[in-house]
Amino acid sequence: MLTGDRRKKRLDRSIKVRTEGLYAVSSWGEMVYLIAPRFVLIVGLFTLPLVLDMYWQRVLCSAGIYALLALGFDFLAEFVGLVCLGGAFFVGVGGYISGLLNAYYGWPPLLSIPVASVAGAVISTLILLPCLRLRGIYFAIVSFMFPLFAVYIIVALGVFGSTEGISALATFPNIWIEQYLILVAVILSLFGIRRLVSEDIGVIFQGIKDNDQAVKASGINITAYRTKAVFITALIGCFGGAYLSHLYGWLGLSLFAMDFSIMPIAAAVMGGMGSLVGPVLGAFILTPLSEALRGFGQLRVVLYSLILIGFIVYKPEGLMNYLQRKYHQFELWEKV
Amino acid sequence: MDIVIYGTVNSIVFALIAVGFTLVYGVSRIPNFAHGSIYVLVGFLTWSFVNDLRMNYALAILLSLTIAAVVGFIMYRFILIRLRGMATSEIIASFAVSLVILEGLRMQGIGGFKGFIGPFYVLRPFIEGKMNIWGVFVDFQRLIIIGGGIAVVGLLWLFTHHTKMGLSLRAIAQDERAAMMLGVNSDRTAMISLSIGSALAGLAAVIILPLGSVTAEAGYKVLIYALAVSIIGGLGSWAGAVLASFVIGFAMKISTAMFGAVWESVVLVGTIILILLFKPSGLLGKQKELEERV
Amino acid sequence: MADEFLLQVGGVSKAFGGVQAITNLSFRLFKGEILGVIGPNGSGKTTLVNLITGFVRPDSGKVFYKARNITGLQPHKIANLGLTRTFQIARPYDSLPAFKNLIVPLNSPRVRRTRGGKLGDIEAVAIDMLEEVGFERDARVPYKTAGSLPLGYLKRLELARCIALKPDIIICDEIFSGLSMSEITSMIPFLEKLHLEGITMMMIEHRLRELFRLTDRVMVMNFGEKIAEGMPQEVIENKEVRKAYLGTETS
Questions:
Q1: Taking CA atoms, what residue in C is nearest to A221?
Q2: pLDDT per residue as tens digits for the range A251-271
Q3: What's B48's domain CATH number?
Q4: Are A245 and A252 in contact (CB under 8 A)?
Q5: Count of structural domains within chain A
Q6: Interface ipTM > 0.90
Q7: Looking at chain B, which residue has its C-alpha nearest residue C21?
Q8: A65, A190, A325, C207: which has the fewest Cβ within 10 Å?
Q9: Which residues in chain A are contacts of C100 at CB distance < 8 A?
Q10: Chain C residues touching residue B294 (CB < 8 angstroms)
Q11: What are the pLDDT digits (tens) for C140-164?
């Protein structure tokens, strides 16, 4: 049949039409329809450590870190309107605090990680505070520079191991704690943020993104809310960094490396910005891919940049938004 | 005296680096994150033309600048044109292009390509030797930087104020819609601005690089400097960019003289944060407070 | 009318670059009145609104609200004092459903304070409020994303956002502009109702006939200066006002 004679018709599945975010489930079938994707995601992530070998288990851990960063990036960019290109800053701050607590005061990882997450989030938020008045691209550019400046300052002061870093930090007792800690963190942050954006505070964040002047006219202090949003993102990012420094038992300038700023963005773009699940999924696809290409040296970076360009130009909605649409719609060809 | 002369040179280096970036942003509102990578690309191309192909130095420079302009054109025509108006996507895409170029230059082992790694890639200064100015020895290349910087800014001013193409660039920069209604093609001007901006990045490279060696890492540094200068000066403001270059250039030289070289980057941060605290739109930037008419 | 005034603007001036947008402007807004502000395009009306509500800082002069100096206060603080505004170009939160647009002001400190911290079913409150400004409930309009609504609804949404704050003063910046005659006539009773409820209003407007049905005092601006003030009829007959509007060359 020629395409001229027919066209594709898309219909929203009944439950999607009825609900609009409010679930009125009327049958087991619909229940399964709603729960299945979430179930697959959670169970899938939690069974991964059981089927992978030692090497890929480590990859899974770093994929988890990238997933957290991608999630934070997506949240800030799509739900608050702050495009933060400096995810590495959070990783570095969290990683250094946790590592130093361990190296200088001998705190065990399970204590230093939570402390470093909170303390790191407070510190990063305070440092970013002057920039929160900036809009759009100004914030993006300034945040991009922060991790590099952190590196310069550490080198200039010659503190915290300077260019050498500090090695022989405490690591996790075993690989299972290592993996499940990060997986639980990913799942909790994912569902936590999903919940958050549908609460009142999430509505206000969205309002700030859509129209900050109108939010001001509604008597809401936008800087205060932006600070909250940045704190949440920083908390997640600093946790990732703190975890990372203990994963390899090492801290150094490469915690501020541009990889931690760019990879999450690539993951978010590929996975689908604005879906929150997408970036997480993107990170779990892109990290192993880049690991598999490690043998090719710099080619790996070139390749994932090309993937990034391909997605942003030809499929800007990303994987997840595409899949979600497919999942919620019937498609059929009909004659014209 | 040291500080005055080397500070001036330093400032003009910044101005040269930033002027292409500012031009592109001013005209097309595209933050060209591939700026630094084109700078490095031109450096390596020139080196290869001169050393591998035994080409004449001037010809090599001309050829690599042309290639830079073509890269800018291709980048706009095939990637950025589809992302106009989405600042985030523009940043991400142009940065991805930058990564492809920079990491591509470092790539080893494909087709016997050794990758541009290490400190062996040095461009020859245009004229060797130094001269004594008020008791300070300055090499000729630094004088060329001063002359070149002034010439570039001057020519750019002439171009934008006295040629038809330059005027249409300025028209788009000031009011895109009105300019479009008067028959200025927005896509074409954006394309031209990216080509010229890329060529300017290349020009900066061939003038500045003889002072040191060509490395891929310089790409990131150049990008950061360009961003810093344009943020401090106010995005898209050319006069602001020149002013900011002098602010940063002297601030860094003075701090180096007083505290040592490691502090110059810290001073860069400090300057940016201080200026943003007091004037969020930069020294001469015009970020509209409200879009509604007065 | 009582002599009590809510808002006093004293000699404010503002220049943008070389353009003098407002020059030494003073006026008072009395409690319970509706003050109309008219003037040709570019006469500084919107700038005046921005100056009063803190979106733009005046170069000189002071703004007093309830005998308190609010000059230079941040916009959200001024809104929390009960001085709200609409925007000339409607500013909805495009990606949110219409009723969620109201969740933003309903979470402001002012509303939280008056409601004693507990908001109850905030979404129901928001939908009721939209119905109050004329959103039909059964057409499911409140659930549509604000970006997809026609202008008439957006203007109502602007008003609803002000009302949600339970304000003392609403400054309407050209709330009728771009609306059809029937939309305007259906909005007027609603504005009258607000007035009866005790809300003081200042209306920047170009639609004089409709404005004069509502106001009893009008201020005329031209080139950033006040050129006349008084009853609608006298103002209309004022020579200088006619000149400003019609541009007659006789002086």
A1: C76
A2: 888 788 777 888 888 888 888
A3: 1.10.3470
A4: no
A5: 1
A6: no
A7: B294
A8: A325
A9: 203
A10: 16, 19, 21, 42, 44, 46-47
A11: 777 778 888 888 888 888 888 888 8
